[in-house]
Amino acid sequence: MELLEKVQQLFGSYGYSVLFFGLLLEFIALPFPGETTMAYAGFLSYRGQLDFGRLVILAFLGTTIGMTITYFIGAKAGLPFIMKYGKWFFLKPDKLDKTQKWFSKYGYGLIFIGYFIPGVRHFTGYFSGIAAIPFRKFVLYAYSGALFWVVLFLGIGKLFGPGWSAVFSLAHQYTAYILAAIALLLICVIVYRYRKSLFHRSRRNTSPARQRQKQNAD
Question: What is the pTM assigned to this prediction?
Fold first, then answer.
């Protein structure tokens, strides 16, 4: 409740700018409750006090600009600099180690899903730069993930109105399941969309002529 009261005070004093500058600073790793702020902003949109489209644009810009800044810091400064001076920017060694392990395991995919992992999303930009991931690929994963992230949490407040806090807690608790369901849905959509070409390719590979070619080659 204390955190929510602070968010309410910020919106009362600064309006839309809270979302843009707060998210930008969060992705440079400064303390800011980004997800709570977005859900509450969505609720204010539900009440007609703020415009939802404007909130999406400002949240997306704050997130992507913050991520892009950290990408270039990582690319220019490198891991030794981040490990040595990161504490001055709240980049704690244990969180850096955690992100490095996640990055080694999931690679590019972490840039997208990292937004939903507490203690990781603030560092994926840095590690993308440190790992010298091509900027175009970074933009593809980071910006698409940012759009999904901001729409989800702003949408919680917008769609559920006064019940946003309960839904917000559930979303936090079951983020992994939500992501798994979305990934499964995307796979089903891709398979359905390209089912004909996959079927024809499978038939070509199992046709008698193709089998004879394989036998002759052997």
Answer: 0.72
